[in-house]
Design a protein that fits this description.
By secondary structure, the chain is an all-alpha fold. The protein is built from 15 helices and 4 strands. The chain has 2 domains: 180 residues, Cytochrome c-like domain (Cytochrome Bc1 Complex, Chain D, domain 2, Orthogonal Bundle), CATH 1.10.760.10; 145 residues, Cytochrome c-like domain (Cytochrome Bc1 Complex, Chain D, domain 2), CATH 1.10.760.10. The strands form 2 sheets. A two-stranded antiparallel ribbon has the order 1-2. The protein is globular and about 70 Å long.
Length: 402
């Protein structure tokens, strides 16, 4: 049995508000019938990111400021040239625009966006991290990404007066240069670095797109707000909640079920599926000392920790990848776990025909069927996906703090 992930109070409240506001549903509004409206309303509003009790400083503004500095600091890499922002560039949708990430070497998977990452239950394409702060640590030491070493990374903060003062005001004294790894102090400081970066990333949120304004208009009967969606985008929305069956995986206000699915998309080099994905990710997650059950978690008996205790690793998870959010999806090409699809047009064409899909292996799910969307329907769906774009964020968050 798969574990149930942590609770999502913000999403629950949003759905409660929806049910109250539409206890007496109209027969039709803005061209949608009552059943369609009920589905549409489950996708907005998106509340604030869910709390992360495993990170006591998740919502500390000073920790976020420190994390922002570290996110843009190339000194954390082994060659002093690569930062988190190298693969998660604010100017390109917090991705790098490459098929697979390129740091010190070529990674095997596409760089997921940081936009709304704080809403995900599991991180990475294979879910091998269960918190934003645990995720932030892995690229720092990955030899093909930033290639750093935690002792040297802690040393960067120790040797920089401003970073050191900021860190120690939040977390307490940094370990000295003579601290050995056996003491655990380096690991503790390294974990705190991840927690600071996560506190910053929790501010990278997109939740008021034209679609959200349209939904407000539905609730309020405001024709001006309903005009936030073009006729083509409305037709695409109708397909999204209807014939397209997109909500099977891209449900809820963040347009993601947070779970893992096999799409059958062939690897970049062609051939059969060979990446175990979630199947291997579960093993890596359970072995990660920085997971919710680990010694550096601030909530080792909470829901996230309990989820790990009951997390099953079965053959059905082989080759499954995490469902990404569709918010700001128009900014984050190329698409899929290896960047196999250059454009949204390519994505819709694939799901419409399933042409070029790889044969299933192991015990993978077989829920996908060709959607048989016409060219016009695909174009309308793309217009709807563009209506999920919202980059209205404080510009100061898009660069290193002074």
């Amino acid at each position: 049995m798969r574990s149930q992930a942590r609770a999502w109070p913000a999403a629950g409240l949003a759905l409660l508000a929806v049910s109250v506001a539409w206890s007496q549903e109209p027969e039709s509004v803005a061209g949608f019938d009552a059943a369609q409206i009920k589905r549409i309303l489950t996708h907005s509003p998106l509340g604030p990111p869910p709390p992360d009790p495993t990170n006591a400083h998740a919502d500390d503004p000073e920790a976020a400021r420190l994390g922002q500095a570290l996110f843009f600091d190339p000194r954390l890499s082994s060659n002093g040239e690569i930062s988190c922002a190298t693969c998660h560039d604010p100017d390109t949708g917090f991705v790098d625009g490459a098929q697979t990430a390129m740091g010190l070497g070529a990674a095997e998977r596409n760089s997921p966006t940081v936009w709304n990452a704080a809403y995900q239950r599991w991180l990475f394409w294979d879910g091998r991290a269960d918190s934003l702060w645990a995720q932030a640590l892995q690229p720092l030491e990955n030899p093909v990404e930033m290639g750093g070493e935690r002792g040297a990374i802690v040393g960067v903060l120790r040797d920089d007066p401003a970073l050191r003062a900021s860190y120690e005001a939040i977390f307490g004294p940094l370990p000295g240069a003579d601290s050995g790894s056996e003491s655990g102090e380096i690991d503790r400081a390294f974990a705190n670095i991840g927690k600071a970066i996560a506190a910053y990333e929790r501010h990278i949120v997109s939740r008021r797109a034209p679609f959200d304004i349209f939904v407000e208009g539905l609730r309020e009967g405001d024709a001006a707000k309903q005009a936030a969606l073009s006729p083509a985008a409305r037709r695409g929305l109708g397909l999204f909640v209807g014939k397209g069956r997109c909500r099977m995986c891209h449900g809820g206000p963040n347009f993601s079920d947070g779970e893992f699915h096999g799409t059958g998309i062939a690897p970049l080099g062609g051939g059969n599926l060979s990446d175990p994905a979630r199947y291997a990710g579960i093993e890596l997650l359970l072995a990660d000392p920085f997971n919710a059950l680990g010694p550096h978690s601030d909530d080792r008996e909470g829901e996230a920790a309990r989820a790990l205790e009951t997390l099953a690793r079965g053959p059905e998870s082989w080759g499954e990848y995490r469902t990404p959010s569709l918010r700001n999806v128009a900014l984050t090409a190329p698409y899929m776990h290896e960047g196999q699809m250059d454009t949204l047009e390519d994505v819709l064409r694939f799901y419409s025909t399933l042409e070029g899909s790889a044969p299933p292996g192991h015990h993978q799910e077989r829920v996908l069927a060709p959607l048989d969307l016409s060219a016009v329907e695909q174009a309308d769906l793309i217009q709807f996906l563009h209506s999920l774009t919202d980059v209205d964020i404080d510009p100061a968050l898009l660069r290193a703090p002074r």
